[in-house]
Design a protein that fits this description.
Elements lengths: L10 H5 L4 H21 L2 H17 L1 H17 L4 H7 L3 H16 L7 E6 L5 E8 L2 E6 L4 H12 L3 E5 L5 H17 L7 E3 L5 H8 L7 E5 L2 H10 L12 E5 L5 H13 L8 E7 L5 H10 L3 E4 L1 H4 L6 E2 L13 E7 L1 H12 L4 E5 L3 H10 L4 E4 L18 E3 L7 E3 L5 E8 L7
Parallel strand pairs: 3-4, 3-6, 4-5, 7-8, 7-12, 8-11, 9-10, 9-11, 12-13
Antiparallel strand pairs: 1-2, 2-16, 14-15
Helix pairs in contact: 2-9, 3-6, 3-8, 4-8, 6-7, 7-8, 11-12
Length: about 425
């Protein structure tokens, strides 16, 4: 009788944990399959699914608030700055706003299938450029849990699948928002894998996303300068990003003082921790009421740092260092420089700006037009607060971020910025001689 010995399986091989790279690749492959389903869905079906997602998010308000309270407590214990805590904090009004943004995205026209242009060649071939989804998009972000909803809604509306990797400081909030959104989307026929939140905070997962060329089609980082710099340096996938929002407001000599005071105060103090906040105030040396511009900021607790001419405006202004002109404070701090007119203002912005958002307050139309055309930023404003640098305020429903580069998309990136295009060529038997 022959005895066959059973060879035991290798327990270590059976239970070996999935590496970060294996995890990301698996999720990306699932996302690719889900995106193929999205590509076949009608505009009306995607819209309906997003409306259900917005409704689910509203219904999950208490759960989301409870999760956010855990993150806030952890953030306070970890010593997060007031600005970071403000970005992280949710309340019923903010949750309602997040859900409303998802519903607003649902109401936007579907960009996919849009014919950008059409031409007929002399040989009779008909050429069309048609918008299509990019494919699988990876979003790497910090602190703001609303990005979970904004990114999911925008990507789905544009026919993309998305892999979300939120920051550890918002992990509980992100999971609660994601769960509600996916429940609504699935009820509307969208595959769950179309919107995936990475189940780990392992930093290696970020590296795996950055190296997933061929599996992830575009990376969008949203967060601090260190995060974005790392993504741009290490990515093997195309990146859509901005490093910081070192935004300027220039008050020209022709500005109306009441308007200038209101705009300057709002641009800095409405919310100091957002990327559209003013960080440097430039005042024309011939402007008649410079003290009125800084008085309200100082009285409301804003620290003002200035050059020698700015310090002469108010004794509470501290001296600015060279580094201040290049700093995105994201806090109640502002740098002030007195400049000799539009030429000096333009030179300062060119030297220190981050190509995000810059504004002029002026009644002189010629000066304003010159500023609008010569400042090389993604968003340039006249007689308006830089705090309007936001996709929702631009009528885009929401935004995936503000792009400051020159390729593909610039400024608030919404559904159209999450598409590319392909050529459709229709012939009648033409052959090339």
């Amino acid at each position: 009788m022959t005895t066959t010995l059973a060879i035991p399986a290798n327990p270590a091989a059976e239970t070996a944990p999935e590496t970060a790279t294996e995890l990301v690749h698996r999720l990306a492959r699932d996302a690719r399959a889900a995106q193929a389903v999205l590509a076949r869905m009608s505009a009306a079906d995607k819209q309906h699914a997003l409306i259900l997602a917005a409704t689910a998010l509203r219904g999950a308000g208490p759960t989301v608030l409870a999760a956010n309270a855990v993150d806030i407590a952890a953030g306070q214990a970890a010593g997060l700055s007031p600005a970071m805590l403000d970005r992280l904090r949710l309340d019923p009004a903010r949750i309602a706003g997040i859900a409303a943004a998802v519903a607003d995205v649902a109401a936007l026209p579907d960009p996919t299938g849009l014919v950008i242009d059409r031409s007929v060649r002399p040989n009779g071939m008909v050429l069309e450029r048609v918008r299509i989804a990019i494919g699988v998009i990876g979003i790497i972000y910090e602190s703001r849990p609303n990005v979970t909803a904004d990114a999911a809604a925008l990507c789905v509306r544009a026919g993309n699948a998305v892999l979300l990797r939120g920051g550890s400081e918002a992990v509980h909030s992100n999971r609660a928002i994601h769960a509600a959104l996916v429940a609504g989307l699935v009820a509307g026929g969208v595959p769950a894998a179309a919107v995936q939140l990475l189940p780990t905070q392992d930093r290696d997962a970020v590296g795996a996303m950055l190296g997933a060329a061929g599996l992830i089609d575009m990376i969008v980082p949203r967060g601090g300068k260190n995060l974005v710099a790392r993504v741009q340096a290490d990515a093997r996938v195309p990146v859509l990003a901005h490093l910081d929002g070192n935004n300027h407001t220039y008050v020209d000599r022709s500005a109306r003082p009441d308007m200038a005071r209101a705009i300057v105060h709002n641009a800095k103090m409405r919310r100091t921790g957002i990327c559209g906040a003013m960080e440097t105030l430039l005042i024309d040396a011939c402007y008649p009421d410079p003290h009125g511009l800084v008085e309200g900021l100082l009285d409301d607790g804003c620290e003002v740092r200035g050059d020698p001419r700015a310090q002469a405006i108010d004794p509470r202004i501290r001296p600015a260092t060279d580094a201040d002109w290049d700093t995105e404070y994201l806090d109640a701090i502002v740098s002030v420089r007195v400049v000799d007119g539009i030429d000096a203002a333009l030179a300062h912005i060119a030297a220190h700006g981050s190509a995000h958002t810059d504004a002029i307050v002026a009644d002189d139309a010629a000066v304003a037009e010159r500023f609008l055309h010569e400042v090389d930023s993604a968003i340039v404003m006249h007689n308006a607060s830089s705090q309007f640098a936001d996709g929702g305020e631009f009528g885009l429903g929401a935004e995936i971020g503000i792009a400051t580069g020159r390729l593909h998309a610039r400024g608030p990136v919404a559904v159209e910025g999450l598409t590319t295009y392909k050529w459709l060529v229709r012939g009648t038997g033409q052959t090339r001689p």
